[in-house]
Model the fold of this input.
Amino acid sequence: MDPLIDSLRRAIEAAPDDVPLRVHLVRILLERGHVDEARAQAGAAIALAPADPAAHAAMTAALAAGAAEPADGAQDARSEAADSAGTAGFDWHAAEDDVKDVADPLTSADPSGIDVERPVVTLADVGGLEEVKERLDAAFLAPLRNPELQRLYGKRVRGGLLMYGPPGCGKTYIARALAGELGARFLSVGIADVLDPFAGVSEQNIRRAFALARQSSPCVLFLDEIDALGQKRSLARNSTTMRNVVNQLLVEMDGFDANDGVYVLAATNQPWDVDPALRRPGRFDRTVLVLPPDEAAREAIFRSALEGRPLEGGIDFAKLAKLTAGFSGADIAGACEHATENALLASVRSGVARPVGSEDLVVAIRATTPSTGPWLDSARNVVQFGVDDGTFVQLRAYLKSAKRS
Done:
């Protein structure tokens, strides 16, 4: 009996989905020479997390350790198993680092890590949305391009910008493109990266996100689904965790000097649910409406979504753009996937490969219901019957022009 292994087994019984714990047990089992059980635990880890590099590395080590499981206390067999793992090129220190990254990705201070990107796209890659680009230019780009005027007028890039609009219209892509335009790193944080059932951990994750952004400066910190992270505290009376998360966001957003070189962007589909304190001056005091793509943007999205696919000649992208008024970018990308699948299935049935044609695309468009409609109906109700502090001026004008109010 090995007390350490028994303790780890009991811990896994209590938390069977804990992949890092299983990987750690694999290491101990291999050191003790229990190769068969190590393989079983590594296989279970891979089944739970198929893309986890640490789980795959653990299985590699277990497979390299030999088929026979030595008896307990057989030191020479244990050494041989460990040597076999080393011969296979397995680095347990690197595996532990991978486990740490998987368990807590926001603690990594390495700006080149998987969670902090260096985007290659810029605003020039964003089709249409000229008003959004102008707003971003005024908020971030113009002051940075003109440091002398910035000093003259005492203008500092502080606070944040809140993007709102229907789902699937490219808010995350715009944030990533802004980072590319600035030559900055990009750190995207969502509710899955922050919210935790244990007391105090969610607030700690917020602190870590801002700390990593500061270490990676210049950096665009993108807070996705800010209506969940920064929900109105009046709606979270029964959730101490959510109220504390909002309070921590307020503290971090007020760190002007500490946040120098950190450009905070946020996105939401429900701006009316964001706590008002987060939208006061110095925080998310600037808002921009990201609408469904206009005709020029829709044409660009079609071209991008179909790039690299076999297409028949003479496809009229302008016509496709006209047929998709009210579609989000995600709707268009989905229609292109549908059309491609139809062409592929037809090729399988006939045994002759054929390109994606205009008819495939038209059929796919007609089978797609725009996802922006329900959001615009909800927005209309807020604009007509809710309290508007001036945040939704753009939205009101759009709904009027679209005859939805």
Q: What stands out?
A: The mean pLDDT is 78.
